[in-house]
Write a structure and sequence with these properties.
Elements: E1 5-11, E2 14-21, E3 24-28, E4 30-33, H1 45-50, E5 56-58, H2 60-65, H3 69-74, H4 78-82, E6 88-90, H5 94-100, E7 104-106, E8 111-114, E9 121-124, H6 126-137, E10 141-143, H7 155-176, E11 183-188, H8 194-207, E12 211-214, H9 222-230, E13 243-245, H10 251-259, E14 264-267, H11 269-275, E15 278-281, E16 284-287, H12 307-310, H13 314-322, H14 326-352, H15 356-368
Parallel strand pairs: 4-14, 5-6, 10-11, 11-12, 12-13, 13-14
Antiparallel strand pairs: 1-2, 2-3, 7-8, 8-9, 15-16
Helix pairs in contact: 6-7, 7-8, 10-14, 10-15, 11-14, 13-14, 14-15
């Protein structure tokens, strides 16, 4: 179903709005915490809710290996399983098969691979991926199966991956059919080639999707090269539908992508880097392992409305991380997710008030120069 996407304000290419789904509204620009194995690592769903997150990402690859699609359905689907009653977007599994699975083979018909957990054999076709996401997991937003070509890619290789993804887009849409409570997003590919990204966008629009993701980025090309693709790629996609940049990113990546017209993001960094002591603040990233925090009585970020950001001293967090205490991983993950939510909330307000350019300039001055 094409969920209503009400853009309430624009400022240059930046947009702010609401994607309305049966399970709740998603305020954009939106950051989706990643709930890989039916959990946002180290956090309860209540803690995630408290950060202001409107939607979570689930990973099809992990969930199809464990607990398995049919078991997930017998248990009532992912929302019931993990106790999260707001929207969930699932990825198609394609990307993680390439990066996590054992021997994988990509054929026209499907991707075959062996589980990184127990070596068992699995098949992921566009049709099977849709069945797992929409019918077994019960995702509110499903993603087409695609092929994310490694970077750097020569044009012929980038073309073949883009064309396979476009054929799989059609098969995904046909398998998804028409549903009145769930949506399907297509994925633009084409690596760093403008002509390929244009062809991909045109083929996706001919098929017609409820939203459009920008794939093939944040795969090692670096911030500068990613921004150069984002200088043109988002605008090739329909302006009235959500644009989702997959796997991105650091706070500065979000600001630069919103500036270029992106609406939705997902990234494991807030929780993954948090578990290793990294915290993002308005004054840039810091690592609590650093000795300079050993007697720092200040909280992480008094202006971020999360207990982990306001109620604990940096000295205490330094101690917890140095001691490899579980609570350290919990508090830094919680703070980082809350910071990413505070960042997207601040961008929504800046766009609504027509001052995103000033926001972007101040953000670079305060956050990036220190970072
Ligand atoms: C995740 C939602 C939907 O994803 C898919 O179903 N396929 C897909 N996932 C990606 C994930 C990425 N993460 C990064 N960097 C951390 N770059 C990525 C690129 C892709 C991509 O091109 N396709």
């Amino acid at each position: 179903m094409t969920f209503p996407f009400d853009i309430s304000a624009t400022d240059g290419r930046a947009r702010t709005g609401v994607l309305k789904t049966p399970r709740g509204d998603i305020r954009t620009p939106a950051f989706m915490p990643v709930g890989t194995a039916a959990t946002v690592k180290a956090l309860t769903v209540d803690q995630v809710k408290q950060t202001g997150a409107d939607i979570l990402l689930g990973n099809t690859y992990h969930l199809m290996l464990r607990p398995g699609p049919e078991r997930m359905e017998r248990l009532g689907g992912l929302h019931k399983f993990m106790g999260w009653d707001k929207p969930i977007l699932t990825d198609s599994g394609g990307f993680q098969v390439m990066s996590l699975a054992g021997i994988s083979k990509v054929k026209e018909e499907a991707v075959t691979f062996s589980s990184h957990i127990d070596g068992s054999k699995h098949v992921l076709s566009p049709e099977r991926s849709i069945e797992i996401q929409a019918d077994r997991i019960g995702a509110d937003i499903s993603m087409q199966l695609d092929e994310c070509v490694a970077w750097p890619a020569e044009e012929p290789r980038a073309r073949s991956g883009m064309e396979l993804s476009a054929r799989w887009a059609k098969r995904s849409k046909d398998a998804f059919g028409t549903r009145d409570t769930q949506a399907l997003f297509g994925i633009q590919q084409g690596s760093t080639f403008e002509n390929l990204r244009r062809e991909s966008s045109d083929r996706l629009q001919e098929i017609g999707f409820d939203g459009y993701a920008i794939g093939g980025l944040a795969v090692g090309e670096g911030h500068q090269a990613m921004c150069e693709v984002l200088d043109y790629a988002p605008q090739m996609l329909p302006a009235d539908r959500p644009r989702y940049l997959m796997g991105v990113g650091k706070p500065v990546d979000l600001v630069e992508a919103v500036w270029r017209g992106v609406d939705m993001f997902d990234c494991v960094l807030p929780t993954r880097a948090g578990r290793h002591g990294q915290a993002w603040t308005w004054d840039g990233p810091i690592n609590l392992k650093n000795a300079r925090f050993a007697e720092d009585q200040d909280p992480l970020a008094p202006e971020v409305p999360c207990p982990a950001s306001t109620d604990y001293s940096r000295a205490y967090l330094h101690h917890l991380i140095r001691a490899d205490e579980i609570l350290g991983k919990i508090l830094l993950s919680w703070h980082n997710i809350a910071f990413f939510q505070a960042l997207t909330a601040a961008m929504r307000t800046a766009i609504a008030e027509g001052r995103f350019e000033a926001f972007r300039r101040d953000f670079h001055a305060r956050h990036v120069s220190n970072g």
